[in-house]
Structure formats: C-alpha cells, structure tokens
C-alpha cells in the first residue's frame, strides 16, 4: 500500500522548492542572496577539503543546495492547528517551544521540521511558526476587533483542506494528489498586496505593535523570509553590500569558531512595499526580509547551559557597536567554551553520530568501550548538526525587521502549555531528539561491528 503513496519526504522537497521559487519572484533580493551563498559555499568547499570530505560523508553536501528555513506568523489557535495538520502531510512536526514575549514580541512559536536522520538528510526544510498572543493587547476593543478579523479569514484553500483530510484518512497521498497538494498549500503563504482592512484599522493595530498589523491585516500568513545555509556567514555578510543588500548590524548567535556550534544568523531588511487598503487608501508595509544562517554542532543540555550562560554574560553592559566589535567581544566571552571536537565530545557538551570507520575490521573482541574503539580508529564520531533555532537570536531577527523603534515590554508568563493547547499537540523536545539519534547511531555501529 505504501508504495502507492508519494512519500512525505518527497512532498516536502517539492514544497520547499516551490516556496523558494515563489519567494524569488516576490522578493528578488532573495534570489541575489541565493547566488551569493552558493558562490561563497563553493569557495569554502574548494578551499577546505577536509570540510568537503566531512560534508560528503554525512550526506550534507547534497542537502546544502536545498537547505532552507522560513518563517510565518499566524493569528489564532485554529490557524495554528490547521497548519500543523498541513505540515504533517510533508513530514514536518512541531519541535521546540520559543517564547518571544520576554523580548518584547507578542508571540510564541515552534519549528515545524522533519525529525529522523533520513528525512533530515533528504531535505531538512523548517518553518519557524509564531502564534500571535492577542491576549497581550491591553485595549479590549482593539483585541476583540483583531480576533474577529482573524476569525473571519480562511488561510487554507478548500482544496488543500480536502487533501489534508484525505491524507489523514488514507495515511498518504498518491502522486497526483501530492502534486495538487503542493500547489494548493503554497497559496497559504503567498504575499497579498491588498490588505483586508481599512487604513484606520491598520494604523490602530500597527500602533499597538507592527507585528500585530502584519498578522491581522492580510489574507494569510505570508512567508516573511527564506534562509539559505552558508558555510561562511562572515564572508557572505562582508559581500552583501556589494550585491546591493544591507545586512543588519550584528550576526546573532555564537562567535566564529574552529568548531562551529549551534547557529549563527544575520538578516537584511526588505524594502518597503506598497499595499492597498480596503478603503482604497494606499500605504507602505515592511514585513518581508532575507536571512542567512550557518549551522554547527548540536549541544547537549550541559553544552546549551554553558552557551546560554556565556551569551548572557557577554550581553551584559555591552555597548551596541559594530559587528567587528561585537564579534571580538563575543569571542572573548566564549574562550571558556572548548573549541576542539574531541573535547566537546568527551566532556558531553555536543552531540555526535557514531559510525564504523570505513574499512574497519569487524573483529573487536568483546569490547564495548567506546573510548577504546574510537582510539583504535574503529569507530568515528561525526558532529551532529543543530537543526533548530535560538530564542535570543530569533528575538534579534524579529526586532531588526520590525524597525528599531521603541520596544514594548510584555510581562507575561512563558506558556508552553497554552501553546500546545492551541497547536492541538505537544511539541517535541529538541534535545531529546538529538539524544535519541546519537544513541541509535551508536547502537547501530556496535551491532555492525559485532556482525549482527
Ligand atoms: C521569525 C523570526 C525568527 C529565526 O531564524 O530565528 C527566525 C519571524 O520574524 O517571523 O526566523
Ligand atoms: Ni529565520
């Protein structure tokens, strides 16, 4: 039966390509950024042969060309849970919980992404999906008006809803259904320059928070950026101005290191776009932007705690300065974080895939001692790439693209429980996923060595 279905991985692969094509048409600077990233990646691969070999051995070399993440923002629990069902068709599941309200952005979020090794290798397409927290709007009238506008829109086409339901009943879609699904699902994320509200309503919502206007005033959750993965973010950032792109001042995340950890990101501000209001007034809206990312090894809970500590310490009293100063300051703050693959592994700071070394003999006696097997060159440990996001970095990305005006403070409780209720499902703990993949790789490698 399952042969008859078009796999969820292939649907996701098609969808991410279709989304990328659409966004390239909508925001031409994104196309420029793709070329720049491809150019720099090619140079890194030619220059750094050991990195190239490592990328090829894990299958990352091929995924690099298709790897993207995007972001969308929805307005209600009903919208969030409907999208959860849509993404499940593509093998994308909610992983992690991100509370942005502490950073002055009235949303909380998850990332929809594939979770197993094979799916991640094929195409790791991820969507950072934020839910607007309308309860944080203090003005009752405005809050109710926003909720009513959201409740009256349909963000998923009726054909897409039918195909989602068919997927849920059949357990899959055939090729024709899958292709139709991709075309229909794409509609949800398209940009509409016609706002659904009049200028006065837009202005009232915008005055409360720019992000609220962006979520509430349009027909759907337009994709607001798509991010290619680079192997050298500092170099791409350096070259952006020559391509007519102005990056945000600072690269978010950890400093440049010999062994990259987690995620480094930078974005550029999109141009103001003309929009038309329901009362035919014309206006400007800035919501869509571009971003690049560089990914490193995933950290264990211990590693992540150290990262969070060092990052927090580095932010204390730092004057906002140039990226060069910021990076120098960060590098200083991170000297305590070991920058050697072996140390990261031995100290349990980062996650690794274990493999049998190519050509290693199956004869290992009876030892299960991982350290001995590694020392003997029978096993190898390969860094596991971080597949998720970082809340502090995400807040920086949000803020830079919402304008640098005054920042609201939302005093609210982080509420994963409320988020999961809205989602209609629990979010998966990302660290547990890495742990599981690491354990599995080790089990498999040991079984292989024993000739099981
Ligand atoms: C999402 C911003 C967060 C990231 O990469 O951390 C993000 C948004 O602006 O909707 O995309
Ligand atoms: Ni992003």
UniProtKB/TrEMBL annotation:
<keyword id="KW-0408">Iron</keyword>
<keyword id="KW-0560">Oxidoreductase</keyword>
<dbReference type="InterPro" id="IPR047869">
    <property type="entry name" value="YdcJ_bac-like"/>
</dbReference>
<dbReference type="Pfam" id="PF07063">
    <property type="entry name" value="HGLS"/>
</dbReference>
<dbReference type="InterPro" id="IPR009770">
    <property type="entry name" value="HGLS"/>
</dbReference>
<protein>
    <recommendedName>
        <fullName>2-oxoadipate dioxygenase/decarboxylase</fullName>
        <ecNumber>1.13.11.93</ecNumber>
    </recommendedName>
</protein>
<comment type="similarity">
    <text>Belongs to the 2-oxoadipate dioxygenase/decarboxylase family.</text>
</comment>
<keyword id="KW-0223">Dioxygenase</keyword>
């Amino acid at each position: 039966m399952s042969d008859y279905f078009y796999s969820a991985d292939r649907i996701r692969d098609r969808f991410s390509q279709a989304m990328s094509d659409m966004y390239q048409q909508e925001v031409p600077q994104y196309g420029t950024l793709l070329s720049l990233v491809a150019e720099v990646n090619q140079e890194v691969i030619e220059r750094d042969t050991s990195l190239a070999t490592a990328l090829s051995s894990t299958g990352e070399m091929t995924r690099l060309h298709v790897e993207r993440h995007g972001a969308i923002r929805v307005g209600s629990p009903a919208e969030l849970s409907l999208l959860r069902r849509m993404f499940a068709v593509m093998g994308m599941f909610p992983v992690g919980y991100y509370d942005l309200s502490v950073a002055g952005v009235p949303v909380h979020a998850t990332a929809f992404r594939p979770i197993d090794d094979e799916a991640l290798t094929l195409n790791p397409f991820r969507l950072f999906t934020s839910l607007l927290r309308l309860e944080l709007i203090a003005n009752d009238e405005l809050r109710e008006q926003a909720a009513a506008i959201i409740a009256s829109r349909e963000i998923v086409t009726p054909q897409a809803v039918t195909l989602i339901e068919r997927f849920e009943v059949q357990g899959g879609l055939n090729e024709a259904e899958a292709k139709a699904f991709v075309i229909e699902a794409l509609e949800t994320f398209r940009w509409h320059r016609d706002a659904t509200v009049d200028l006065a309503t837009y202005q009232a919502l915008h005055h409360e928070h720019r992000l609220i206007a962006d979520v509430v005033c349009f027909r759907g959750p337009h994709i607001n950026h798509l991010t290619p993965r680079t192997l050298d973010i500092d170099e791409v950032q350096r070259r952006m101005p020559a391509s007519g792109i102005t990056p945000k001042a600072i690269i978010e995340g950890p400093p440049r290191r010999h062994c990259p950890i987690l995620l480094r990101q930078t974005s550029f501000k999109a141009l103001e776009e003309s929009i038309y209001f329901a009362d035919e007034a014309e206006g400007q809206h800035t919501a869509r932007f571009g971003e690049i990312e560089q990914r490193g090894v995933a950290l264990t809970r211990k590693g992540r705690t150290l990262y969070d500590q060092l990052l927090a310490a580095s932010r204390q009293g730092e004057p906002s300065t140039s990226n060069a100063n910021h990076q120098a300051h960060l590098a200083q703050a991170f000297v305590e974080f070991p920058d050697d693959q072996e140390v990261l592994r031995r100290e349990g700071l980062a996650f690794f895939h274990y493999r049998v070394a190519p050509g290693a003999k199956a004869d290992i006696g009876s030892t299960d001692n991982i350290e001995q097997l590694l020392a003997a060159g029978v096993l190898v440990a390969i860094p596991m790439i971080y597949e998720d996001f970082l809340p502090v970095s995400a807040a920086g990305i949000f803020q830079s693209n919402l304008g640098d005006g005054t920042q609201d403070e939302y005093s609210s409780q982080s509420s994963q429980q409320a988020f999961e209720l809205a989602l209609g499902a629990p979010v998966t703990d990302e660290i547990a996923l890495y742990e599981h993949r690491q354990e599995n790789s080790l089990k498999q490698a040991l079984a292989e060595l024993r000739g099981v």
